[in-house]
Each structure stands twice: as C-alpha cells, then as structure tokens.
Design goal:
CATH architecture of one domain: 3-Layer(aba) Sandwich
Pfam families: PBP_like_2 (PF12849)
CATH topology of one domain: D-Maltodextrin-Binding Protein, domain 2
Structural class: alpha/beta
CATH class of one domain: Alpha Beta
Order of helices and strands: HEHHEHEH
Number of strands: 3
CATH superfamily of one domain: Periplasmic binding protein-like II
Distance between the termini: 68 Å
Low-confidence stretches: none
Helix content: 40-55%
Shape: elongated
Organism: marine sediment metagenome
Protein name: PBP domain-containing protein
Strand content: 15-25%
InterPro entries: ABC-Tungstate_binding, PBP_domain
Mean pLDDT: 75
C-alpha cells in the first residue's frame, strides 16, 4: 500500500510539473480588433493599446479596413472586437448584425 501511494504521488507531481511548465511556454493571448483606417491613422490606437497589452498580457492584432468591412468581419466572427465610427451605417438595415453583444461608447 505504501509503495502504491509513493507511485501515485510521483506520477501526480510529474503531471502537475508538466502542466506548469507548459503554461509558462504557452503562446500569448491574441485579440483581433477590426477598426477603420481613419482610427488607426489618428494615432488613437498607438496611445490606447500599449498600456492595455501590458496590463492584461493580451496582444491586440489590429485589422484596419473600411467601416463596412470591419462590421462584416465582426458579423462573420473573424474578429473579437469591432471599433467603428459611423453609427448610421450599422444602425440601418443594410448591415445584418448577428453579434452577441454590442457596446456603444460615445466620446
């Protein structure tokens, strides 16, 4: 019984060690952000993203396209976040949004 207990503890510790080591070498989390080219060119993302990435350890991959394309990427689930400026474009029926949650931020 004692030998079985030692074997179990050894295997358990080995498994935990492997899990901990693999988590250290895991790839960083990436977040895909679709935004407009004007937002990227404004320099806003250069100010906002570095502190966000440092604080949360999440790398943000920016895809700068037109508003319609950004909304389409979000609708198709190709990106995690959509940041667009033109409310009338997505508010009318020309874009069929099937996004799970829409957060509107007015500045």
């Amino acid at each position: 019984m004692m030998k079985r207990n030692i074997v179990f503890k050894t295997v358990f510790l080995f498994a935990v060690s492997i899990i901990l080591i693999s988590s250290v070498y895991a790839s960083p989390i990436h977040l895909k952000l679709a935004t407009t080219t004007s937002t990227e060119n404004s320099g806003l993302l250069e100010v906002l993203l570095p502190p966000f990435e440092e604080k949360f350890g999440i790398k943000v991959d920016v895809i700068a396209v037109g508003t319609g394309k950004a909304l389409t990427l979000g609708e198709n689930g190709d990106v995690d976040v959509v940041l667009v400026l033109a409310r009338p474009i997505w508010a009318n029926n020309s874009v069929n949004l099937t996004l799970l949650k829409i957060q509107i931020i007015y500045i």
